Amino acid sequence: MLFRFLLIALLSLTVLPASAQPAIEKGTAIAEEAASRNSGWGDLSVSGEMILTAGGASSTRRFDAQWVETGRGASRSLIVFRWPGDIQGTALLTHGYAGRNDDQWLWLPSLSKVRRISSSGRSGSFVGSEFAYEDMTDQEIGKFTHTWVQDGACPGGGTCHIVDRRPRTASGYSLQRVWFDTSNLTIRQVQYYDRRGAHVKTLAISGYRQYQGRFWRASRMVMQNHLTGKATTLTWSGYRFNAGVNPNALSPNALSRIR
Predict the structure, then answer these.
(1) What global pTM score does this model have?
(2) Spatial distance between the Cα atoms of 242 and 186, rounded to a whole number of angstroms
(3) Do residues 37 and 29 lie in contact, with contact meaning Cβ atoms separated by under 8 Å?
(4) Within the chain, which residues score under 70 in pLDDT?
(5) What residues does each domain of the chain span?
(6) What domain of life is recorded for the organism (predicted)?
(7) CB of 93 within 8 A of CB of 255?
(8) Would you state the pLDDT for residue 147?
(9) Residue 240 to residue 107: CA distance in whole angstroms
(10) What DSSP designation does 132 have?
(11) Start-end of H helices in the chain
């Protein structure tokens, strides 16, 4: 009798209310469909600019990036800064996995050193920008739970599915609220909430273009920090799919050979 009572009590704590289940099912379905539409691209290379803005001042950096799919929900990426001289050669390598924390390494040419980014360090600023290291990873769906909130207006027009995704793995965020465009399931906006539940940053994504008749990629991402007033803009250009990116070249041992 005691065992049965404890079992019922445990189930009452773990089973979600019936009213919450449809929202979770719908949110999960939206996220899964968006991920499905954005898989199978193989590999790509792209050029970019990072513009840091604080008050009335701004500074610009230029970089090249490569991505390659290595399995279901898994990928590798490499971002290498090319200009200006004080950051030239600095590189971020990410190995992304399905359902668990990614591995990240930072190559610092001035120190001739590869630094592994720890789990606690993933919430830190990526090269002084408003993007955290974890923002530079693929937001693989297995790392989150997804709950549909409502359908509403997209920033800039149109209709969006608004979905809350909560991290299952180590994160500097307690919640990310995501706006998926209902027409193509591209992400138009993400609001980031810290571990205390405060809305700290907003990412606006725009300038989408479709490649190979299937894959949507943005040309502009603006991360606004509501605590500091600072912003970082990433602009992307020259997307090349099936560029022949070798996943074996995207390894920690290869970082010191970057030119």
Answers:
(1) 0.90
(2) 21
(3) no
(4) 1-20
(5) 19-255
(6) Bacteria
(7) yes
(8) 98
(9) 24
(10) B
(11) 2-14, 20-37, 252-255
Give me the pLDDT at residue 26, please. Answer: 97
d(CA 259, CA 109): 10
Give the bridge partners for 233, in sequence order: 51, 222
Q: What is the DSSP letter of 9?
A: H
- Which two structure tokens, joined as six digits, stand for 88? 């030239």
Q: Nearest 5°: phi and psi at 120?
A: -70, -25
Beta bridge partners of 16: none
Q: List Cβ neighbours of 235 (8 Å cut-off, separation of 6 or more).
A: 48, 49, 51, 219, 220, 221
Q: Which of helix, strand or coil describes residue 144?
A: strand
Q: What are the structure tokens assigned to 28, written together?
A: 């999960």
User: What's the pLDDT score for residue 1?
Assistant: 44
What is the distance between the alpha carbons of residues 36 and 214, in angstroms, rounded to a whole number? 11
CATH number of 19-255: 2.50.20.10
